[in-house]
Amino acid sequence: MSWGTELWDQYDTIATHTQKGIDFCERFTHFLKDRCSIELKYASELKKLVKSYQPKKKEEEEYQQYSWAARFWDVLKELHDLAGQHEVIAENTQGQVMKDVQSLISEMKQQRRKDLQDGAKVQDQLKESLAKLDKSRKNYEKAFKMAEKATDDYRKADADINLSRAEVEKTRNQMMIKNSQCDESKNEYAAQLQQTNQHQRDHYTQQMPSVFQQMQSMEENRINKIKSMVKQIADIERSVIPIINTCIDGMVKASDGISAEEDSKAVIDKYKSGFPIPADIPFEDLSNSSVIDTSNANGTPKNSLDNRKGTVSDKKKNRKDKKGGGGLFGIFTSSKGEESKEDFSDLPPNQQRKALNRKIDEFKKEIARETAEREGMLKMKDVYVNNPALGDPNALEKKIEENAQKIDSLQAEMRKYQGYLANMDAKPSPVGQRRNSLSDDSISQSSTNMEMSQTSLPGQPPVAANEPEVYTDEWPEPPSDEEFEEEGTVEIRKKPDKKAIDDEEDHVGEFEHAEGDFDEEGFPVIGTCRALYIYEAGNEGSVAMTEGEEMFVLEQDQGDGWTRVRKHDNSEGFVPTSYIQCHFYDQDEV
To answer: Where is the SH3 domain (predicted)?
Structure first.
């Protein structure tokens, strides 16, 4: 259906209707703008919410200890991603739909202005033709009346006998002139009428329908564009639904990852003190002035409930003000201001053991990283030596030396904490254990059923069982062959009766070294090594080596920084582990 044929007489109405369409487009633009503003505000509020409840940097480690806290953190991450999708909706709506709507409004205004101008021009032409027709009709009416009057005058004059022949002839000529003018006016009126009718037919069948058709096309184009934009808005939102569903699935997965059993176990691992349960309170017989003491039957000191660290009473004393406490709902309290001792002796036994093991693992990772860095520099040095054009190998000497010193320092620190751990477990230090290849198995197999005593090296003061060894940043002095042989044999004794020893010696082992010889041939060759630096033997039990010297490895480094080697002249001794590059035969078997 066409507006030109159906609405031929509704030109003004159509003009008003098209203006309403433009007004709707502008209103639709405001709607999209407000919608984007709401989406952005919602995303911003969600991100603020996530930021308010996510753990601080110092609390992240504690969040990972419990499944409910860690999974809640995962939910916050998914919520942050979900907020980002609402930002995507707003950005795509602004960048695509709103831009198209504004372009459509501009095009419609321009097209409507042109169509109205064309319609006004056609309307003016029809009005002008009608005005000419009206004018010619009025001329014809005037001429017709004058012709009738002239005819009446001639008839009267012809009938009047008093008038002369000349006067009658004059009246007759006047009548003929008026009749002629009337005929001309009539012909002009007929011609103008025919022309106006043709113009009017063209106006209502061709010219105005053409204008109406243009306005109808403009309006239909607007409607189709609005349809497309509404669908585009839905497509934009549909495009983020899979990601939003993924975020929701992540939240569901996070909820499935919460385990009450694992959290209960984590609480035990974190807060278990390692103290035994207090024994029965002894009966005090005042009449005999004697005390029946059963508290030491299981190694628990008296008044352990009052003196033990980590108990409820001790925690109440050390509990600090929780104002401004961080974490989820303030459940995690900060430990600022609580400085623990170097050996963590201020912690309960179980927590102290965990802290020491964690510290040792940190040193091992750092040593592994530094060792990898050293190997990389050594490879680079070899490349520079083979191809001096790539770089100066001497430029790496200082860095390699600094790296070796750093490794030595880290190993010394690690040995110190290993000593703390060994003393805590009532075992010999790692340095004392490594000198006897048989002691590892014998100690591990009989540590629960046997007690061992350690004999100090010749020329050194004995080390008490419960006193921590003192470690320095310098290389430990390797033992001599005689000292090593004296340590070679370990005598294992059965534990004496618990009642015959003190509580402090209850968990402490003793080593007794029997005199005997340990043949050098008892150390099989387990690999080869190459000296990276020159080493001058400054201590008894160590051997000197030159850079690049090849040697046999008899015993691996047991954590004290020394490796036992045999040179090609059959001399044996210890060299710094960081000064050599080792290759073990068991690696080839793997």
So the answer is: 524-585
Give dist(CA 30, CA 162) in Å, integer: 93
State residue 464's pLDDT score.
37
More confident of the two residues 585 and 435: 585
| pLDDT tens, residue by residue, 396-413 | 888 888 889 989 999 998
476-487 pLDDT per residue, tens: 444 444 443 344
Report how far residue 307's alpha carbon sits from residue 313's, in angstroms, rounded to the nearest whole number: 9
The single-letter code of the amino acid at 406 is: K
CA distances from 513 to 439, 493, 531, 573 (A): 11, 11, 34, 21
The number of beta carbons lying within 10 Å of the beta carbon of residue 89 is: 21
The DSSP code sequence of 100-169 is: HHHHHHHHHHHHHHHHHHHHHHHHHHHHHHHHHHHHHHHHHHHHHHHHHHHHHHHHHHHH-TTS-HHHHH
d(CA 82, CA 62): 25
How far is the C-alpha of 69 from the C-alpha of 270, rounded, in Å? 15
Distance CA 310, CA 557 (A): 38
What b/e readout covers 127-160, taking b as 16+ CB neighbours within 10 angstroms? eebeebbeebbebbeebbebbeebbeebeebeee
Q: Taking 90 as the threshold, does the pLDDT of residue 337 lie above it?
A: no
Longest Cα separation, the chain:
191
Pairing, β 512-513 against β 493-494: unpaired
Is 419 exposed, middle or buried, given 0-12, 13-18 or 19+ CB atoms closer than 10 A?
Answer: buried
Contact 356, 343 (CB under 8 A): yes
Pick from 496, 509, 434: which is nearest to 466 by CA? 509
